C-alpha cells in the first residue's frame, strides 16, 4: 500500500477502445490463423496505453532505480529486433513488488517484477523471461483471449453488492487479484511463447538452456512458498509466474528443440554481469508500502500496524492491503478521506456506504480512536456473503477502513477473530517505525568461515531460511557451499 490514498481501480479491460473487425489472419510469429477479431494493431496499442497505469497501480508501481530499469530495458530491446511485430512500441518495466511474476500487455508493454529478478541468477535467465513474454505479445495471445470474450468476462467478474456499492471495485481486485492479467495461459500458448522466446533469446546470443534452469528455480520457489504457507505440495499462489505461465521442464525442452535454434554461438549467460546489476536491489516490501511480518502488517511511513487472524494470507497491493482465507473470507484494509466534517459513524453511514441498508451499528474505541462498524449483506462470485465495515478515525480527514467479507455460513465462526483483527489496529511510535528497515539483496563472495546457516540467518522465513537461501542461489538441497563463489545474500 503506497501513500497514494485514493485510487479506484476500474475493472480490467473495461476498454473504451472501439472494436474494428479484423477477423482471422495468419500470425507471422506462430504461422497459424489467429482469431484476434475486433482488435487491430492500433487497438492493441491503445489498449496497452489504457491498461498500463492499472498494472502499475496494482503491482507496486515502477521500481525506482533508473540504472536497473535501463539495464532491463536494454536486454529487452536486444530481443525486440528479432520479433515479428516491429511496429509495436515495446517497453520493459520493473514492477516494485516482491511477487514473482512477469506479464505483458498487447502491443509490447512487458513487465517483470523485482521478486522475479531476485530469483534469476544470470542475464540469460532474465532474457528468457522477457523473450517468453515477447512470445505472448507476438503470438497475440492476450488479444486472442480478449477477442474470445474470455478475458472481459473474467475481468468483469460479477460481484453484486446489496449496499456498499462503493467497495465493489476493491473486492473485485482483492478477490481475483487482477485476474485478467493473471489468468493462466493454455498449454499450447505457453509452448508457442517458449518457442518464440527461445528464438528471440538465441538470436540475441543467449544460451536457451537458461530457460530450463530458471524454470527449475521458479518451480522450487513456488513449492517452497506452499510449504511456508502450510499448503499442500503442488499448490501455487495465483500471483506466481508458475500459476500464470504453467510450464514443465519437458515442455520447455521440447520448445527449445522445436524452435530450430541449435547455433553453438548462442551461449551467453552473463552471470557476473547480472549479479553486479542487481546488487543492492530492494528485497521484500519497500518502506513506503508497508511490511508484512507473518500475520502482521506494519506501515512504517504512515505509522500503523494491525494483525490478521490465523489462516489469512496478507497481500500488500498498491492502494490497499488484502488478506484472503481458504474458506472464502477476505479482509480489505485501506485509507480514505472524509470529504465532509462527519464523525466516523456518520462517515460510515452517509459517505462510505451512502445510506445503503446496514445493521449492527456499533461504536468503539480502537487504540483510543473513535471507530464505528456496521454489517451488510452482499453477493460475491454468486455466493451470499456477510460484510462487516469498520471505520477508524485517523485524525483530520483520514479514515482507516476495514472491509471484512465472510461466506454466510462462516460468519458466526469467524466473527470474534475478525473483530479482534480490526481492534488490533494501532498507531506506532517513530522509534518503532525506524526499526522497520527494508531488506536488500547483496552480492558477495563466500569465504572459509561462511555456512548456509549463517548466511541465511538474516532472512525473514524462520525455519525456511536455509531452503530459501538455496532457492535464491540455485543450489540443490544437498549441494555444499563452495569457498570463493559469488552468492546472493539478504540483509
Ligand atoms: Zn507464458
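-> sequence recovered:
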Amino acid at each position: 500500500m503506497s501513500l497514494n490514498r485514493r485510487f479506484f481501480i476500474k475493472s480490467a479491460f473495461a476498454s473504451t477502445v472501439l472494436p474494428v473487425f479484423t477477423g482471422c489472419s495468419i500470425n507471422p510469429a506462430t504461422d497459424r490463423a489467429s482469431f484476434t477479431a475486433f482488435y487491430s494493431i492500433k487497438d492493441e496499442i491503445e489498449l496497452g496505453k489504457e491498461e498500463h497505469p492499472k498494472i502499475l497501480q496494482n503491482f507496486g508501481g515502477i521500481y525506482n532505480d533508473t540504472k536497473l530499469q535501463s539495464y532491463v530495458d536494454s536486454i529487452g530491446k536486444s530481443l525486440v529486433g528479432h520479433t515479428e511485430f516491429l511496429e509495436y512500441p515495446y517497453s520493459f518495466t520493473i514492477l516494485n513488488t516482491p511477487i514473482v511474476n512477469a506479464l505483458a500487455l498487447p502491443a509490447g508493454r512487458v513487465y517483470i517484477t523485482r521478486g522475479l529478478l531476485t530469483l534469476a541468477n544470470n542475464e540469460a535467465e532474465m532474457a528468457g523471461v522477457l523473450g517468453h513474454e515477447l512470445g505472448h505479445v507476438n503470438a497475440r495471445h492476450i488479444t486472442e483471449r480478449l477477442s474470445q470474450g474470455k478475458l472481459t468476462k473474467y475481468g468483469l467478474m460479477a460481484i453484486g453488492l446489496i449496499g456498499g456499492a462503493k467497495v465493489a471495485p476493491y473486492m473485485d481486485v482483492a478477490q481475483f487479484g487482477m485476474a485478467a492479467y493473471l489468468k493462466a495461459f493454455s498449454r499450447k500458448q505457453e509452448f508457442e511463447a517458449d518457442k518464440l522466446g527461445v528464438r528471440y533469446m538465441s538470436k540475441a546470443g543467449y544460451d536457451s538452456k537458461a530457460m530450463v534452469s530458471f524454470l527449475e528455480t521458479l518451480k522450487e520457489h513456488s513449492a517452497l512458498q506452499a510449504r511456508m504457507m502450510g499448503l499442500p505440495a503442488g499448490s501455487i499462489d495465483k500471483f506466481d509466474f508458475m500459476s500464470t505461465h504453467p510450464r514443465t521442464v519437458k515442455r520447455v525442452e521440447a520448445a527449445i528443440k522445436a524452435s530450430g535454434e541449435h547455433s553453438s554461438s548462442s551461449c551467453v549467460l552473463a552471470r557476473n554481469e547480472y549479479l553486479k546489476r542487481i546488487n543492492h536491489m530492494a528485497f521484500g516490501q519497500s518502506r513506503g508500502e508497508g511490511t508484512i511480518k507473518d500475520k502482521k502488517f506494519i506501515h512504517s511511513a504512515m505509522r500503523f500496524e494491525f494483525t490478521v487472524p490465523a489462516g489469512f494470507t496478507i497481500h500488500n497491493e498498491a492502494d490497499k492491503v488484502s488478506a484472503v482465507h481458504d474458506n472464502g473470507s477476505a479482509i480489505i484494509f485501506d485509507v480514505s478521506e472524509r470529504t465532509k466534517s462527519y464523525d466516523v459513524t456518520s462517515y460510515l453511514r452517509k459517505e462510505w456506504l451512502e445510506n445503503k441498508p446496514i445493521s449492527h451499528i456499533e461504536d468503539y474505541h480502537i487504540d483510543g480512536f473513535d471507530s464505528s462498524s456496521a454489517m451488510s449483506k452482499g453477493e460475491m462470485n454468486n455466493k451470499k456473503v456477510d460484510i462487516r465495515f469498520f471505520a477508524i478515525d485517523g485524525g483530520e480527514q483520514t479514515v482507516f477502513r476495514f472491509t471484512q467479507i465472510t461466506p454466510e455460513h462462516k460468519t458466526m465462526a469467524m466473527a470474534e477473530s475478525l473483530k479482534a483483527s480490526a481492534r488490533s489496529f494501532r498507531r506506532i511510535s517513530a522509534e518503532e517505525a525506524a526499526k522497520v528497515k527494508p531488506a536488500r539483496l547483496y552480492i558477495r563472495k563466500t569465504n572459509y568461515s561462511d555456512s548456509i546457516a549463517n548466511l541465511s540467518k538474516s532472512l525473514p522465513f524462520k525455519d525456511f531460511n536455509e531452503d530459501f537461501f538455496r532457492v535464491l542461489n540455485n543450489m540443490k538441497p544437498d549441494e555444499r557451499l563452495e569457498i570463493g563463489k559469488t552468492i546472493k545474500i539478504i540483509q
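The pocket of zinc ion is lined by residues 132, 136, 185, 190, 193, 245 (CB under 6 Å).
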